[in-house]
Amino acid sequence: GQKRCRKCFRALCCKGPPPARPEYDLVCIGLTGSGKTSLLSKLCSESPDNVVSTTGFSIKAVPFQNAILNIKELGGADNIRKYWSRYYQGSQGVIFVLDSASSEDDLETARNELHSALQHPQLCTLPFLILANHQDKPAARSVQEVKKYFELEPLARGKRWILQPCSLDDMEALKDSFSQLINLLEEKDHEAVRM
Q1: pTM of the model
Q2: Residue 76 marked in a binding site
Q3: Which of 18, 38, 62, 183, CA to CA, is 20 to 30 A from 54?
Q4: How far is Cα 13 from Cα 25, in angstroms, rounded to an integer?
Q5: Cα–Cα–Cα angle for 147, 27, 185, nearest 5°?
């Protein structure tokens, strides 16, 4: 009789509509030219060829197997960065894209921006996915170099952050980085429920 029960149970369980995927609101920041728009377009399976630099902000709903990420991408130009924090409200996670092959000056700017985001009252408790983009360029710094240069260890201690190498050529790795971020978002959700 047990076998039959299990069969009924399976029929009951699997008949219903698939469970709704959770949606998370994320903010995506990084300097102009770090590749934010191209990476997000590619994740949405749009062609990155006709990508124009984001001047204000744009929102993309990026579907993954186990979640939908509503990503608000903020333009990275000097004159826009000072307004970033106006758009942080309601974010559940942060994607920070940096160009691993950029000049020392740009890296320093990126480091300052990342540090202020990590310390911002609306973001400091959120999971961060930090993408070291343009790994396919000869001048790209390794993830270890980026980690050291950005002083992530002391600064982000106790925070949830993931630093991953990425490039447009390697979509598998990029999707994997996002899966890790979704895991952090889910953990944070469960914690909120427990409290």
Answers
A1: 0.87
A2: yes
A3: 183
A4: 30
A5: 75
Give pLDDT tens digits for 13-42: 555 666 688 999 999 999 999 999 999 999
Instruction: Tell whether 135 is in a known binding site.
Output: yes
Nearest Cα to 71, choosing from 187, 152, 182?
Answer: 182
Distance CA 75, CA 28 (A): 9
Give the whole-angstrom CA distance, residue 24 versus residue 185.
Answer: 8
Handedness of CA 185, 150, 167, 25 (dihedral sign): positive
128-133 mean pLDDT? 97
What span, in angstroms and rounded, lies between the C-alpha atoms of 157 and 148?
13
What's the pLDDT at 179?
96
**Is 32 marked within a binding site?**
yes
| Dihedral angle over CA of 35, 38, 40, 42, nearest 10 | -140
Q: Which two tokens stand for residue 95?
A: 């994607």
| Collapsed DSSP state (helix, strand, coil) of residue 69 | strand
C-alpha dihedral (143, 80, 37, 140), degrees to nearest 10 = -30
Annotated binding residue 134:
yes
